Amino acid sequence: MATSPLGNLPANPTIPLTPEVRAAYQDLYNKMQAELDGTMDGAVIEALNAWQPQVDQILRKDDEYRLSADTNIFEALQKQISDTNKGLKTLRDQISSIASHFAMAGDIIAAINKVFTLIPGA
Q1: Does residue 86 lie within any of the structural domains?
Q2: Which of 27, 49, 74, 75 could serve as a FRET partner for 18 with CA atoms 20 to 30 Å apart?
């Protein structure tokens, strides 16, 4: 299994998400969708189907927080980001291990890494 270039998971980002961090999550979501649309590989589909909805939840909860600035939504968004980023680290490692069967692995790993590098304290 490939070693993570970041080692530890990044700290939680500023909420609401900065435009740059939000764009990174959106780019990651889009790259995952493009791969789902173009692959027949069951392992790839299973891995991406597990985490793409979680990335979508970050984007949705960020939208909700922007609309209401509610403390409960803030805490839910922080938890969603933390849980999703843990899973994205696992997904990145899984993709690295099956990269020879996954043409867009580099793009998705780069998008995950971009999300992590845009979060302060990463």
Answers
A1: yes
A2: 49
Structural domain boundaries enclosing 62:
19-117
Instruction: Return mean pLDDT, the chain.
Output: 84
Question: How far apart are alpha carbons 43 and 27 in whole angstroms?
Answer: 22
Reported pTM: 0.66
**Do the beta carbons of residue 25 and residue 10 sit within 8 Å?**
no
> Is residue 10 one of the residues assigned to a domain?
no
**Amino acid residing at 8:** N
Other beta carbons within 10 angstroms of residue 72's beta carbon come to 10
Is 12 a member of any domain? no
**CB of 115 closer than 8 Å to CB of 21:** yes
Closest C-alpha to 47, from 116, 7, 6, 97: 97
